[in-house]
Specification:
The protein has 374 residues and is of the alpha/beta class. The chain is built from 13 helices and 13 strands. It comes from Piscirickettsia litoralis.
Amino acid sequence: MMNNFMMTTEPAYFTPIEFDRLLVFLHSANASDITIQSGENVIADIQGLLYRVTVRKLTQQEVSDLINHIYGANATAQVQSGTDLDTSYQLVAGGENFRYRVNITACQFQGYSGIQVTLRTITASPPELKKMELDQALHENLEVPQGVVVISGATGSGKSTLLASLVANFLKKPESHLKVLTYESPIEYTYDDVDKPSSIISQSEVPRHLPTFAAGIRNALRRKPGLILVGEARDRPTLEAVIEASLTGHPVYTTVHSNGVVDSFRRMVNLFAAEERQARLYDLIETVRVIIWQALIPTITGTRTVIREYLIITDEIKDRLYRSTAENMTMLLKDILIQSGRPLHKDIQLKQDLGIISECTARKYIFSTKEEIQ
């Protein structure tokens, strides 16, 4: 099985051109993530499983040449000085575009500073929203006139893909009349091939075009946006800016890294100092309209499918949350998710009943969910 993903002819030295050939080969094998590291074989993630795809372990110089090709001549020096780099990479082969999200990080190698490069495959154009497996209730509540929509999950759970599909869907509608401003790190999906009968989109990359996400949101408020997309609400200044943009009447779509809907809300509250949390909790209750958490899990056929939980924050739920405090908010949200939202175990059970996932996989994730909500 491993040999099915080995290159038929492997070069004695991987030049940037040979790396491009490897990327095209791994694209044909449906690799989602590729890891290139000093002193290691090239590793590919194919349907959630890791495979070594080169016989030979790569030298430090090969990896250094690659990152200088991707990022620029001083990339190796920057990484070895303790700065990790996030960027994107694109190549054209056979008339087809191949795009990747790239992280470059220093690591230990034979007592010295080595390099690990992680490339995540991204599609140039976002997939259609109908392919995102959204149930009707969620689909109907994802277009908000103002407020915050939060999409959460771990790295590689499809957050950016869902966001891009939503944006593309807005752009396609003749009645939208939206100026869409996005702030991403890096830009993953582009919308050049999306028909935009009444809307326009401007994409900015952090830190290439603007220094931070928070600076991006402040920039957006000076440009009369119809919709703001923030790649990640990763810190207090960004979340403060997201709240400010929402309170001034703008729809804001963003992501957070979390372990569930309840954890998403808790993490946002906890970005603030203890003395601020109660006031900021009320701001979040006022502005957050929808929270989605999702993950990709293996199917019976060897592919992956999305499992998802979500909470649509109605006026009734807002009233209940306003009576909470930063200390008891977590327990209340757990109850609300079970009573009024879509908890994860329901989606898992549905996928099992439809024969999409195995009983073993369902038990594993349902058990994790029950542990989380207890």
